[in-house]
Design brief:
The chain is an alpha/beta fold. The protein is built from five helices and five strands. A five-stranded mixed sheet has the order 3-2-1-4-5, with helices on both faces. Helix 1 runs antiparallel to helix 5 and helix 4 packs across helix 5. The radius of gyration is 32 Å and the shape is elongated.
């Protein structure tokens, strides 16, 4: 066997082994994304209704609270960036990081100091490599996040929003995650969690200057908001973690399918080149045999003379 043919056969074996791995990873991601989709669908109604409840309390009372009240001059903001612990997911992590950097630049242009919180080793590695300050980070659960993980992430954020900015607190809380739209479409976006943008609630006017509230609160609207604040942040963070996980699995499935298809095409190309090299070797061997036979015949004829 010629040297060139050996090279082709070695590369075919290597690419075939890689194709088996990428195919297995594609199947694993496909099974995980279905489970993640179900969790996203199950968590969405709770997060939506809790947001509505907070909005109702905010619009039905005049209580000033970090959940619903805009700071007169916001000077500090927290940004939570959700990435994955592992790669092999195409542009999933880079798109989320890019969205976070754009949000940070926009907030800094508004004169706000930004504290960055990161979930996932990929995002943390990006910031560490560029020697950027990270307030706090978490990892190890991005593929299958639980509500306990969401509570762990939400804890420092809730503490920061409850503190005064002079004591290290923040006026705003933003989250950057990848929204799962479909198996083929996932979009990195940023969303402001706090202060909450209140929904408009219709109210009855008794006179031109008086407005009757739609709700009564026990023991008080402030106590209700204090109770809802951690649950609101935890539910929104949990939903974002689940959406990010589903998006990552979908991106991995798509990337591994592309890698598997490319490996198949490369194997076909290498097989054609190997066949051509083998045919060239056979042709050369035949030529050598024919040439040797002719030379032997000439030598025999010369000796008979």
């Amino acid at each position: 066997m010629g040297a060139q043919l050996r090279v082709y056969k070695r590369r075919i074996r290597s690419v075939t082994a890689t194709k088996k791995i990428t195919k297995a990873m594609e199947m694993i991601a496909a099974s995980r994304v279905v489970k993640a989709q179900r969790k996203v669908a199950a968590s969405a109604p709770y997060a939506t209704e809790l947001t509505r409840a907070v909005s109702a309390v905010g619009t039905g009372s005049n209580t000033k609270h970090p959940l619903t009240t805009e700071a007169e001059t916001a000077t500090r903001a927290a940004v939570l960036l959700l990435t994955s612990d592992r790669g092999l997911a195409g542009a999933f992590n880079s798109n989320a990081i890019k969205a976070a950097e754009q949000l940070t630049a926009r907030l800094e242009a508004e004169g706000k100091e930004v504290d960055t919180y990161i979930v996932g080793r990929r995002g943390l590695a990006h910031y560490n490599f560029r020697e950027r300050k990270v307030a706090e980070s978490w990892s190890g659960f991005t593929d299958e996040p639980t509500y306990a993980d969401a509570k762990k992430v939400a804890g420092p954020l809730i503490e920061a929003i409850e503190k005064e900015t002079a004591d290290g607190g923040v006026d705003e809380l933003h989250i950057v995650f990848t929204e799962f739209i479909s198996m083929m479409t996932q979009t990195a976006l940023d969303d402001r969690l706090l202060p909450l943008s209140l929904e408009e609630v219709e109210q009855e006017k008794t006179t031109k200057d008086e407005i009757l509230p739609l709700y009564d609160f026990e023991p008080s609207a402030e106590d209700v908001l204090d109770a809802l604040l951690p649950r609101y942040v935890e539910s929104r963070v949990y939903n974002a973690l689940l959406q990010s996980a589903a998006s990552k699995h979908a991106a991995t499935r798509r990337a591994m399918k592309s890698a598997t298809d490319n490996a198949g095409e490369l194997i076909e190309t290498l097989s054609r080149l190997a066949n051509a090299a083998r045919q060239a070797e056979i042709t050369q061997e035949i030529s050598e045999i024919v040439g040797g036979s002719a030379a032997l015949a000439d030598a025999t004829a010369g000796s008979d003379r």
